[in-house]
Amino acid sequence: MQSYYSFHIENPGFDNIGHVIATADLNDKHDRSAPSHFHWKILKCRMLIFSNSSILACPDKKEIKQVHIIISTMNDDYDRLTSLFMKFSLIQQGAIRQVTPEMFLMCFRYTMTARIAPTWNTIGYNYLINNRNFLSTTGHQDGIKYQISFNDSSTVLELKPIKMILIRSDSDYKPGDCVRVLPSLSKAIIQDFCKSLPESGSFKSYQDLRRHWKNIHGYRIPEEEGSYYMVRFWRGEPLTYPKLCLTQNFPIITPLPKSAEGPLQLNISFECSDPQEILTPEECKCWLENQEAMYILEMERIEISNKEENDKWEMAEKITIEKWRKLQEKNEQLRLKHLQEIAKRKLEWEMEKKRREEEAERLKEIEEENKRKQTIFMEKLEQFLKGDSEDPPEELLISRESRPNTNLCPFFLKTACCRFGDECSRNHQYPGISNVLLATNFYSHFGLENSNFNEYDTDLMLEYDDKDTYKHFEEFFNDVLPEFEKYGKIVQLKVCNNYEKHLRGNTYVEFRDLRSAVAAYQGLHSRWYGGRQLSLQFCKIKSWDNAICGLHPQRRCPKGRGCNYLHVFRNPKDLFSGYNGHHNRQRRTPPRSWRWSESPERDPSPKRRRSRSRNSRHDNEDRSSRHHNEKDRDTPRKRKSRSDTNDR
Question: Domain end: 376, 396, 416, which one?
């Protein structure tokens, strides 16, 4: 009958202990026995345990550099812990925390197993073997199975004496064999065999490997060097293990009967007496027979368990191989797809490169052709301007239209200007060249630019009347006329004094021949005058009579400053006044007949009222007429002719 030993350890008051988390400095120079960051953290934890007997500690299972420490808060343990932190290059994370039962059990288990090694060495999760040289010992070895539990008042430690046999293989393992790795007894697969330590491994010598197992696990590896194996776990990179730390299967565990159990002392060595020293020969013989029978049963159970585990392993291996095959097929498809994408992009890039080269070549040819045409055009233009050629270059005869296939704008057709510009809903025809040059907004004066006095002070225009504006215009006229006459005979020159922006200050210059107009455009376009850049364009004025408002000289234009026909200055000395718009018609009244006496004078007030009502009616008609209706211009002329008839 199997029994166990139970030890109750009184729990310390959780109010008197604290939980501290420290992190190892990974940049610190590692010891050769702890090559990885994980081993470096374990080494720091064990150094704390062996430096202070009142400390419970354990490494964190997930965080790569954290160590959990439990200390007493009633004395100077925290000050000593702080000095150990400085000595071992540890950094405290946060303040002292409250200790939980789970954290206390974890630190207690790890500290206990670390302190009793190497007399008691850890095998698996809850087994201890009582042999310093258990790795090189064959046959039965003494051990215990322990279990730690926790209640409100105490920590319970249950110990069961056992006999343990480590199953080893006399022959070498082959790649693909399944083994268990000490001290955790985790399953792994043999990947390769090595007679000596690999040069690319973490350990440079066998002494470094022995120090690693002693410092990290508490094992004492024999001084004689053996063979090594590269093993791979389910996850992670392959690791190098000595053959002594590999077992073929789970160890054979045989519980000791109660009669065979000896006194078990819970001290630092956890010593267990030999049962043969306290039994009689008959009891010892009976015990050995029972042990043999139990060993046979245990071997049968182990074989069954091994077969089940092997079947599970083979099934898992098949599933893993199938997943691996599918993964390889998927990776191969992705690789082929990636290669196709690369080839496609390369082809597209080559086609794009070829297209760009062709486009650059085409643009270069176009540029060269344009340069050649420009050279020919300039030669023809020079010949035309010098008089060597009668006809201008063909390129200058091409006209431009703003809205083809639409009705012509009547105002642009007459004045070459429109208040809507190219946004007008009707078509504007711009000639390539013509005898008439238009300098838009060329003439500028304060009296014209600030004519809309509603935007400024109402008294502002009192300082500038028409005489001041006209005096300034005479200076402008005498300054501009000689410059234009340098290029040829001028037939007409008109300067607008309209208030509308599209007509304000426009200067029209008509030359006698086309050659003079082209020469003037070439010489004066983009030049500067009075701080403003001159902008010239060719335009067509079919009739100055239709372009110039006929009622403006008599100050009878009903549109006033909003008129869309040309209101022009009277040129000094009546220069270029050879059109009928400026000459007022003389009222001719037939002489009174001597046969008739003088008629009594009539009261002019009714006629004046009738004339005012007639004028107001015409004003209303003008306001309601559309912008592009030519009747707005014809109505004043008809009214003028009607009044002339009445006068007659």
Answer: 396
In the numeric block, the tokens 């540029």 are attached to 367
Specify the 3-state DSSP secondary structure of 229: strand
Own/partner contacts of 81-85, CB < 8 Å, gap of 24 or more, are 81/20, 81/48, 81/52, 81/55, 84/48, 84/51, 84/52, 85/22
3-class secondary structure, 601: coil
Q: Which pLDDT band, with edges at 50, 70 and 90, does 30 fall under? A: low
Residue with tokens 């501290």: 20
Query: Measured between alpha carbons, how far is 190 from 175 in angstroms, rounded to an integer?
Result: 5
- How does strand 436-439 pair with strand 66-72? unpaired
Is 468 found in the same domain as 406? yes
3-state secondary structure of 197: coil
In a domain, 390, yes or no: yes
What the block records as the tokens of 489 is 């005979």
From CA 275, how far away is CA 253, in angstroms rounded?
A: 17
If asked whether residues 369 and 442 sit together in one domain, one would say no
Helix axes 514-524, 466-485, angle to 10 degrees: 110
* pLDDT (0 to 100) of residue 637: 42
Q: State the Cα–Cα distance between residues 639 and 648, nearest whole angstrom.
A: 14
**Three-state SS for 489?**
coil
CB-CB neighbours of 52 under 10 Å: 15
Comparison of pLDDT for 271 and 438, the residue scoring more: 438
User: Is the domain of 290 the same as that of 431?
Assistant: no
> Measured between alpha carbons, how far is 153 from 48 in angstroms, rounded to an integer?
27
372 lies in the same domain as 446: no
| Residue-wise pLDDT tens digits, 519-553 | 899 888 888 888 888 889 999 888 888 888 888 88
Helix or strand or coil: residue 182? coil
3-state class of 179 per DSSP?
strand
pLDDT in tens, 80-138: 888 888 888 889 999 999 999 889 999 999 999 998 888 898 888 889 998 888 888 88
Same domain, residue pair 359 and 424: no
pTM as predicted: 0.43
CA 349 from centre of chain: 25
Cβ distance 40 to 34 under 8 Å?
yes
- Long-range CB contacts (< 8 A, 24+ apart) of 106-109? 106/58, 106/68, 107/56, 107/57, 107/58, 107/68, 107/69, 107/70, 108/56, 108/148, 108/155, 109/58, 109/148
pLDDT digits (tens, 9 = 90+) for 487-512: 999 999 999 988 888 888 899 999 99
pLDDT tens-digit map of 203-252: 788 888 888 888 888 888 888 888 888 888 876 678 888 888 888 778 88
Cα–Cα distance, 524 to 87 (Å, whole number): 91
